[in-house]
Amino acid sequence: MNNPIINFFDVKSYLDHKHISYATEGSNTSGPDWINIDCIFCNDNNKHLGINLENNALNCWRCGGKNIVKLVQLIEDCNWSGALAVMEKFQNYNKPERFFVPERIPAGEVKIPKEFKRVGEGKPFSHYHLNRFLTVRGFDPYQTPKEREIYYSGFWGVEYKFRILFPVYIQRRLITFMTRDVTGKTSKPYIACNPKDEIVPIKHTLYGYDDVLPSSTVILVEGPIDQWKLGRGSLATWGTGWTMEQVALLRSLQPKKVYTLFDSEEIAQESAKRLSKAIWFCDTENLYLDDKKDPGELTLEEGKELIRGLIK
């Protein structure tokens, strides 16, 4: 389960709060890391529903495997989102170490789709939409390709037409990528690498990983444009929906401190707070911009000044 609310749900505290009794030993108990309750799914009254305290997996000796969110739904008589809201009130961030072990990266490397060309290399072609996309966001369309590895599709292709490609490297290997529409006229602004082609899922990665020095201060932002504005020392989580795999990857850098700088909207700030709590292995601090919606609205000079002030 990649949802941090589910991963960190403290089921024992929740059951205590609801005055629901559970067994920690006995003939029906599943093991040392399990507790058992009466199964609400099959109306059992002999503690047949086992709950794993490490990963919140459920299994009933009578009716089989179940889902922890479904259990809370039945207890609370609410929908899925309502159950998650309840579970968020019972979080335990002292979870077992295994949640923070970076996954092993399989061999291989992703290939850039043929419709994308490296900007600034080879025969020039029209970059009108790309140049406008960069200029509106405060980037020099002629200087930025010299500083960043930028791929652009232009008129070519169907799925990736008029898109910029953000390559994702870990240990100098291209393992996946994300693309962004530059016209503002599509219903799908972002399209990631096809899951069957990527080496590691995009939501298990942090954009800018290879440019961060081990044991340094890190700033976490949402998107690649935010990361461009701050530069080296910042990492993008690909939106507010961060994953435990990203936390594990962050830990592999052994940062001395981590700042979260998500968008100023309430939902983004709440996600940033949960992320800070999940990063137990170093000091954290939540930041937001008073006068701007998100870091992508900063000028390049403001971004450099901000990161210089944080990384001392």
Structure description:
There is one protein chain. This protein has helices spanning 4-7, 11-17, 68-76, 80-87, 128-136, 144-147, 224-230, 244-251, 266-278, 300-310, and strands spanning 34-37, 49-52, 58-60, 64-66, 117-118, 151-152, 163-170, 173-181, 190-192, 217-221, 234-236, 257-261, 283-287. The chain has 312 residues and is an alpha+beta fold. The protein folds into three domains: 4-92, Zinc finger, CHC2-typedomain (DNA Primase, Chain A); 117-198, no CATH class; 209-310, Dna Topoisomerase Vi A Subunit, Chain: A, domain 2. The protein has a five-stranded antiparallel beta sheet with strand order 5-6-7-8-9, with no helix packed on it. Strands 1-2-3-4 form a four-stranded antiparallel beta sheet. Strand 7 (163-170) and strand 8 form a beta hairpin. Helix 3 crosses helix 4 (80-87). The longest helix has 13 residues, at 266-278.
What key attributes describe this structure?
single chain, 312 residues, alpha+beta, DNA Primase, Chain A, Dna Topoisomerase Vi A Subunit, Chain: A, domain 2, 5-stranded antiparallel beta sheet, 4-stranded antiparallel beta sheet, 13 strands, 26% helix, 18% strand, elongated
What is the topological layout?
Layout: H1 4-7, H2 11-17, E1 34-37, E2 49-52, E3 58-60, E4 64-66, H3 68-76, H4 80-87, E5 117-118, H5 128-136, H6 144-147, E6 151-152, E7 163-170, E8 173-181, E9 190-192, E10 217-221, H7 224-230, E11 234-236, H8 244-251, E12 257-261, H9 266-278, E13 283-287, H10 300-310
Parallel strand pairs: 10-11, 10-12, 12-13
Antiparallel strand pairs: 1-2, 2-3, 3-4, 5-6, 6-7, 7-8, 8-9
